[in-house]
Specification:
CATH class: Alpha Beta
CATH topology: Rossmann fold
Largest sheet: 5 strands, parallel
Number of helices: 7
Shape: globular
Structural class: alpha/beta
Strand content: 15-25%
Length: about 190
C-alpha cells in the first residue's frame, strides 16, 4: 500500500522539521513541499519573483497554481510520500483554504496530520526565522489560527475520507513528535 501523508500546520509550528525527521525514519519515503511546487509553476508563468509573494497574489491565480501543483503531485508513484503544506493561507482577501475539494481529490491522501505548537512558541519561532518574510501576528491571532487549523483539518478529512491525527510539537521535542508519527505510519503499512 502506498501512503500519501499530507502534513499541515500554521507557519512556525515546526511542520517541516517534523516531516523531515519522520521521513528519515521510514525507508523509501520522499517529501514534496506543496508551496514549492506552486512557486515553481508561478515562476514559470512569470507571476512571482520569490515564494513569499504568492500569498499576495489574487485568490484566482492561487487557485490555478494549487490545481497545477496537485495534479503534478498526484502523478508521483512514491511508496511513502509526505506532502508538506498549509491548511490555509492568509491573503489580502482573507483566509484561503490550502486543501480545497479539488486539491484533496487530486492528491488522494491516505493520512492527514496536523502539527501544532503552543502559540507563544510559534510566535518566537516566526520571529527568529530570518529566512522567510512572515507577517507579524499576535498570540491571540495565533490562537485563532490554531483553532481554524483544526476546523480545516476536519473538513479535509471529511472530503478525503482519510484519518486525521493531531500532534503537538513542543519546543525541543521534534524528535519525539516525529517518532510518534513514524510509529502510526509504520503500523498503517502492516
Amino acid at each position: 500500500m502506498n501512503l500519501r501523508v499530507v502534513v499541515v500546520g500554521i507557519p512556525g509550528v515546526g511542520k517541516t522539521t517534523v516531516v523531515e525527521k519522520t521521513a528519515a525514519g521510514i525507508k523509501g519515503s520522499k517529501i514534496v513541499t506543496f508551496g514549492s511546487v506552486m512557486a515553481d509553476e508561478a515562476l514559470k508563468l512569470g507571476w512571482i519573483k520569490n515564494r513569499d509573494e504568492m500569498r499576495k497574489m489574487t485568490v484566482e491565480k492561487q487557485k490555478k497554481l494549487q490545481k497545477l501543483a496537485a495534479q503534478k503531485i498526484s502523478r508521483r508513484k512514491d511508496p511513502v510520500l509526505f506532502i508538506d503544506t498549509h491548511l490555509f493561507i492568509r491573503t489580502p482577501e482573507g483566509f484561503w483554504p490550502g486543501l480545497p475539494f479539488e486539491v484533496v481529490r487530486a492528491m488522494k491522501p491516505t493520512h492527514l496530520v496536523l502539527v501544532e505548537a503552543l502559540s507563544e512558541e510559534i510566535r518566537a519561532r516566526r520571529t527568529a526565522d530570518a529566512t522567510r518574510a512572515r507577517d507579524d501576528v499576535s498570540v491571540a491571532e495565533l490562537e485563532s489560527e490554531l483553532a481554524m487549523g483544526r476546523s480545516f483539518l476536519t473538513a479535509a478529512s471529511t472530503l478525503s475520507g482519510a484519518p486525521m491525527l493531531v500532534v503537538l510539537n513542543a519546543q525541543g521535542k521534534a524528535d519525539d513528535t516525529a517518532q510518534k508519527l513514524t510509529q502510526v505510519l509504520k503500523n498503517a503499512m502492516k
